[in-house]
């Protein structure tokens, strides 16, 4: 089981001039809260100003793609465009095919948003087979894994600054 993060960075990235949006689902609250906290912690450590971290919610992971689109467009209309958005959700397999359908459609639509919106859309959706896997990836099980939200915060800053 991989327990690393983003791997070796090619340089340090400075997010001091960035506005980063976090849009999170409300299902699986304890796990979501930990992931959001991890993303914020990493963004702050990369010099993103707290007032430039904008947080919104949607009901569930299926709503993340459309919610992300509306979120980015709203910030642009307000004259405060985002440099990247991190949609955060958690999907845990149940006893029906529902999990596979939601994972597949959400993943594809979030990927497409990168090109449609012209900003990085970081894939912050855990797709886990068990609750324990999700808790581990949110850093809630001591010594098991790290908080993936931190990886997503780092990826947002890197992708928003690297090619500009």
UniProtKB/TrEMBL annotation:
Protein known as: 6,7-dimethyl-8-ribityllumazine synthase
HAMAP family per the UniProt record, alphabetical: Lumazine_synth (MF_00178)
Entry function: Catalyzes the formation of 6,7-dimethyl-8-ribityllumazine by condensation of 5-amino-6-(D-ribitylamino)uracil with 3,4-dihydroxy-2-butanone 4-phosphate. This is the penultimate step in the biosynthesis of riboflavin.
One BP annotation, GO: riboflavin biosynthetic process
InterPro entries per UniProt: LS, LS/RS, LS/RS_sf
One Pfam family it belongs to: DMRL_synthase
Listed Gene3D superfamilies: Lumazine/riboflavin synthase (3.40.50.960)
CC annotations in GO: mitochondrial intermembrane space; riboflavin synthase complex
Enzyme Commission numbers on file: 2.5.1.78
GO molecular function: 6,7-dimethyl-8-ribityllumazine synthase activity
Organismal lineage: Eukaryota, Fungi, Dikarya, Ascomycota, Saccharomycotina
Superkingdom of origin: Eukaryota
Pathway terms, separated by semicolons: Cofactor biosynthesis; riboflavin biosynthesis; riboflavin from 2-hydroxy-3-oxobutyl phosphate and 5-amino-6-(D-ribitylamino)uracil: step 1/2
Assembly mode: Homopentamer.
NCBIfam families on file: lumazine-synth
Alphabetical list of PANTHER family matching this protein: 6,7-DIMETHYL-8-RIBITYLLUMAZINE SYNTHASE, 6,7-DIMETHYL-8-RIBITYLLUMAZINE SYNTHASE DMRL SYNTHASE LUMAZINE SYNTHASE
UniProt similarity note: Belongs to the DMRL synthase family.
Enzyme class per UniProt: transferase
UniProt keyword terms in alphabetical order: Riboflavin biosynthesis, Transferase
Classification via CDD domains: Lumazine_synthase-I (cd09209)
Reaction(s) catalysed by this chain's protein: (2S)-2-hydroxy-3-oxobutyl phosphate + 5-amino-6-(D-ribitylamino)uracil = 6,7-dimethyl-8-(1-D-ribityl)lumazine + phosphate + 2 H2O + H(+)
């Amino acid at each position: 089981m991989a327990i690393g993060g983003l791997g070796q960075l090619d340089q340090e990235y400075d997010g001091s001039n960035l506005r980063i949006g976090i849009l999170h689902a409300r299902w699986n609250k304890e796990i979501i809260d930990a992931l959001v906290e991890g993303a914020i912690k990493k963004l702050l450590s990369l010099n993103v100003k707290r007032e430039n971290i904008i947080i919104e919610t949607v009901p569930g992971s299926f709503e993340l793609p459309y919610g992300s689109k509306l979120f980015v467009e709203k910030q642009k209309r307000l004259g405060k465009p985002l440099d990247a958005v991190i949609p955060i959700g958690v999907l845990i397999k149940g006893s029906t095919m529902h999990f596979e359908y939601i994972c597949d459609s959400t993943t594809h639509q979030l990927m497409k948003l990168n090109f449609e919106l012209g900003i990085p859309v970081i894939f912050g959706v855990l797709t886990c087979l068990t609750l324990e896997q999700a808790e581990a990836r949110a850093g809630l099980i001591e010594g098991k894994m790290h908080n993936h939200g931190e990886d997503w915060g780092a990826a947002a800053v890197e992708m928003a600054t690297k090619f500009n």
